[in-house]
Amino acid sequence: MVRKSKKSDIDYVSIAQAWNATHAGQRKPTINDVASLAGVSKKTVSRVINDSPSVNEDTRNGIKEIIRRVGYRPDPQARGLAFKRSFLVGLIYDNPNPQYIVNMQQGILDGLHGTGFELVVHPCERNGETFLDDARQFIELQKLYGVILTPSVSEDENLAEILRELGCAYIRIASIALDTERRMIVTNDRIGSKAAAHHLAELGHTRFALISGRRSFRSTHERRYGFEEGLAEFGLELAPSHVLQGDYTFESGLMRGAELLDLDPLPTAVFAENDEMAAGVLQALQVAGQNAPQIMSVVGYDDFEVATRIWPRLTTVHSPTREIGKLAAQRLQEFGVEDNTSAGPNQTTPYLVERESTGRPPD
Amino acid sequence: MVRKSKKSDIDYVSIAQAWNATHAGQRKPTINDVASLAGVSKKTVSRVINDSPSVNEDTRNGIKEIIRRVGYRPDPQARGLAFKRSFLVGLIYDNPNPQYIVNMQQGILDGLHGTGFELVVHPCERNGETFLDDARQFIELQKLYGVILTPSVSEDENLAEILRELGCAYIRIASIALDTERRMIVTNDRIGSKAAAHHLAELGHTRFALISGRRSFRSTHERRYGFEEGLAEFGLELAPSHVLQGDYTFESGLMRGAELLDLDPLPTAVFAENDEMAAGVLQALQVAGQNAPQIMSVVGYDDFEVATRIWPRLTTVHSPTREIGKLAAQRLQEFGVEDNTSAGPNQTTPYLVERESTGRPPD
DNA sequence: CCCACTATTGACACCGGTATCATTAAGGGT
DNA sequence: ACCCTTAATGATACCGGTGTCAATAGTGGG
After folding, report:
1. Residue nearest to nucleotide D26 (CA to C1')
2. DSSP letter at B153?
């Protein structure tokens, strides 16, 4: 198939240099400029841009050379218009924790870096009346290439249905599998809170309390199940009376934390379903003149920065948020490819980080 | 100028309803659909979309009615292509504090909500070799409508120059004015740290220490000047030996905090140039078995969440980050308008929030 | 009643890409 | 030498909007 082509004799480098000299910095080169410089039609240049097969090797190399020399970059807007799809990835979230969002966002950007995709952030209120309409409008109008969903919007079946209907690729990040494998990143919260339970059991604790998160979040239930499972493996259990309802905010941790001291029997260890609430519990103990872990051990979940800012520093379950974001971004890009057997992992494993907020129970 | 037009007799409502019935949910209506339904050219519809004058009132109302009924929304991509400008606003930042970024982002989204603009986030490393090239590429390729710059990238003159060269609207958020009025949001850090100094002076403190931020940030110097000015107004001063160099991270606060106890004379009050470092100082004191504010008072700057998570809670200077973001987004949109005398404020004023980390000096 | 003038509108090209389908040329088989 | 197949490429329409400029139709003045 070695077909000697006259094309290879053309000096693309000089051609490009000449162009640069003439048009230096005047305007961005377009596909037409590249095409006429290369002496081909714009369609052929388009084929090269899109790595389409059936372009002669010499032609392809020459065009690539010119593209490089004149610094041509296809206009995403024009491409998107013809493609009927933009090169934007949306992050739709309703999680109120800033730390979570920044980590997630950063991870997604890691995964998107150098691919030509840009990230558009879109917070929303899942309870709002216009939630679904707004989301649909956003996705449809921007013709998003793909969407990444974090809890708890990731748990919304109606939204997923809309995305499917619009033919928009999406990745749902959630504590358990809710969709087909390629569309999920599973964070396995149950494993994480089981580790928390094991840690406390191994320290010798026997009386536990739990501060739960917002009921509408899947993680709230997963974390509780995991914790209870973990205790059960040590023959221990969590008294229903010792489960206090929080809502993942610091303030709720503060309030429930104060109530902990009134429980009978007094728990020696508390598992708060996230760090914010755990920080609230610790502050409540401080305010009451008590110290963790002397009076009771406290474990959180997330391992966000707050865990190391407070004193005692928080023993907590680390979930690799940034890695999750990166994974999500990478997997999103595999949707275009037919051969997605090469897909990376779609699970992450949380693990316990021991700090000073846990210790042996008081005698 | 009341010119009775036959147009007003046309029943646009039924026309639109008929269309809906026929095409229900099949595809998004385009400008061509609207034009043919209204019996006008697409150019006239375009005029209506863009609030262009010289469209007959009846025609305009009829077209608007149809647009509403069929749920037409102009495609931002197509519009952008013709307009040679997208409807995307970029947020370029290198500030490593997640809390700052989320607040800022949220504020910008507040200001952008309902305007049809979307936010594209773009972190970067100002020290990186490719910083300027990357930024230019991003702005040029996406044909950004406007850009919002936060410290310290907002302080980069080269970047501002590129933006001007590309004809891209931008707003710089910084502690002092660095550009024309319409392009700045000034946060007046000097005022904030002056308030911190006054607070400590009024409590009776006389020996101070300062943990400074990263030298490359303008705020680092502004906050120090403000603090010193504030002290001077009370006839007090900050010994150069008591200025410790930090870098705005918690870890640096932790390290410098430990060194505070070795200073001679021992300071009775410390001003850390941000909350993260202040939290580090407080933790260092805790670790050393000392308590704030008994041994020394600590003041921070920013009033991020960490300030209330730690114990004692941090007295700090509140800067309205979210409002700043909103302001920036709003002002950015005034760039298109010729009459920008209506521009909102371009300054914000920080203020002190007293909590438990400050008190009277020890005897 | 004619004319310059203004308000309103549309035809057509264009923004910078991609899709479809036709066309051309080279290679293989007989 | 002839026909068929495949590789390579281009002509043209099209994506959904906007800009330019010409065309049309009332309006007020002389």
Report:
1. B3
2. G
Task: Give the nucleotide with minimal C1' distance to the Cα of A41.
Answer: D10
Does A306 contact B at CB distance below 8 Å? yes
- Beta carbons within 8 Å of B292's beta carbon, 6+ residues apart: B281, B282, B285, B298, B312, B357
Q: Is B356 helix (H, G, I), strand (E, B) or coil?
A: coil
Residues in chain B: 363
Residues B66-81 pLDDT 10s: 999 999 999 999 999 9
Q: Please name every residue paired with A317 in a beta bridge, in sequence order, or none if there are none.
A: A301, A352
**Residue from the list A77, A123, A309 with its beta carbon closest to the beta carbon of B309:** A309
From its phi and psi, is residue A194 left (phi > 0), alpha (psi between -120 and 50) or beta? alpha
Collapsing DSSP states into helix, strand and coil, what is residue B192?
helix
> Tens digits of per-residue pLDDT, B285-331?
999 999 989 999 999 999 999 999 999 999 999 999 999 999 999 99
- CB contact at 8 A, A319 and A280: no
Q: Which residues of B281-310 are buried (b: 16+ CB within 10 A; e: fewer)?
A: bbbbbbeeeeebbebbbbbbbbbbbbbbbb
Interval A332-357: pLDDT, tens:
998 876 655 556 789 999 999 999 99
Distance A163 CA to D7 C1' (A): 39
Angle at B285 between CA B282 and CA B287, to 5 degrees: 110
B16-31 burial, b at 16+ Cβ within 10 Å, e below that, comes to beebeeeeeeeeebeb
Chain A residues 264-303 with a CB less than 8 Å from chain B:
276, 279, 282-283, 286-287
Block residue for tokens 């107004």: B233
Specify which residues A90 forms β-bridges with.
A120, A147
- Amino acid found at B254: L
Residue A146 bridge partners (DSSP) = A89, A169
CB atoms within 10 A of CB A49: 17
Distance CA B100, CA B248 (A): 12
Using alpha carbons only, give the angle B230, B235, B236 rounded to the nearest 5 degrees: 70
Instruction: Give the model confidence (pLDDT) of A101-136 as tens digits.
Output: 999 999 999 999 999 999 999 999 999 999 999 999
Q: Which residues of A201-227 are buried (b: 16+ CB within 10 A; e: fewer)?
A: bebebbbbbbbbbbeebbbbbbbbbbb
Residue A271 in 3-state DSSP?
A: strand
CB pairs under 8 A between A and B: 99
Adjacency order of strands within the sheet including B208-212? B243-245, B208-212, B269-272, B297-302, B315-318, B351-353
Amino acid at B150: T
Question: What is the SS3 assignment for B291?
Answer: coil
C-alpha B95/C-alpha B248 separation (Å) is: 10
Q: What is the separation of C-alpha B234 from the centre of its chain, rounded to a whole number of angstroms? A: 34
Using alpha carbons, list the distances in angstroms from residue A143 to A99, A111, A149.
Answer: 28, 20, 16
pLDDT given at position B3:
41
Backbone angles phi, psi at A250, to 5 degrees: -60, -45
Q: Are A174 and A186 in contact (CB under 8 A)?
A: yes
For strand C, is any atom closer than 7 Å to the CB of A311? no
The β-bridge relationship of strands A297-302 and A146-149 is: unpaired
Helices in chain A by DSSP H: which ranges?
12-23, 31-38, 42-49, 57-70, 76-83, 98-112, 131-142, 157-165, 189-203, 218-232, 250-260, 275-287, 306-309, 321-333
Q: How many angstroms from the chain centroid is the CA of residue B78?
A: 29
- Whether the CB-CB separation of A186 and A172 falls below 8 Å is answered with no
Measured in angstroms, the CA of A217 and the nearest CA of chain B are apart by: 21
